[in-house]
Design goal:
8 helices, mainly alpha, 65% helix, Arc Repressor Mutant, subunit A, 156 residues, LysR_HTH_N, sigma factor activity, 0% strand, DNA binding, RNA_pol_sigma_r3/r4-like
Length: 156
């Protein structure tokens, strides 16, 4: 839902021009009319704030029909955050090893110790930096760098 302030304000003003005349002809005093107008104005402002800070996903509220989800920046953000790859939900954390088609490479990877496989998983599949891996495994960054070099040599 988009909120065009100028358009909505014009609608509000037109609505209240009509309502003021109706209330005056009905015999309402000016102070009561002004109080109701102020109440409606506060409601108008709250609705504007709500619309500025809340956006609907196309799935639940198709406000921009005709556009694909790729054209909606909010939808792109949620697709990125909530998408997953099936390999992360296989039997184990290291299910990606079984997906490799090269049997000699599989054997070499299976000969690595569990710490090396963990580093390889974080570095290649989770795309973590050496610093992030070092923090997670309580190592220094140079140590992680050396281990990655050793892993590369073992896999050649």
């Amino acid at each position: 839902m988009k909120f065009n302030y100028n358009t909505e304000k014009k609608k509000y003003i037109r609505k209240w021009e009509v309502l003021e005349k109706e209330y005056e002809t009905a015999g309402m005093d000016k102070s009561s009319i002004e109080e109701m107008k102020r109440f409606d104005w506060e409601l108008f402002k709250k609705e504007r704030v709500f619309c500025r800070h809340n956006q609907y996903l196309e799935v639940s509220y198709p406000y921009n029909e005709g556009k694909s989800p790729e054209q909606n920046s909010l939808m792109l953000k949620f697709i990125e955050k909530f998408s997953y790859e099936e390999r992360y939900f296989q039997d184990s954390r290291y299910g990606w090893i079984e997906e490799i088609e090269n049997t000699s490479l599989i054997k070499k990877i299976k000969n690595l110790n569990i710490a090396e496989i963990e580093i390889l998983t974080m570095y290649v599949f989770e795309e973590k930096s050496q610093t992030e891996i070092a923090e997670k495994m309580n190592l220094t960054q140079p140590s992680v760098s050396r281990r990655i070099r050793v892993i590369k040599k073992k896999l050649k």
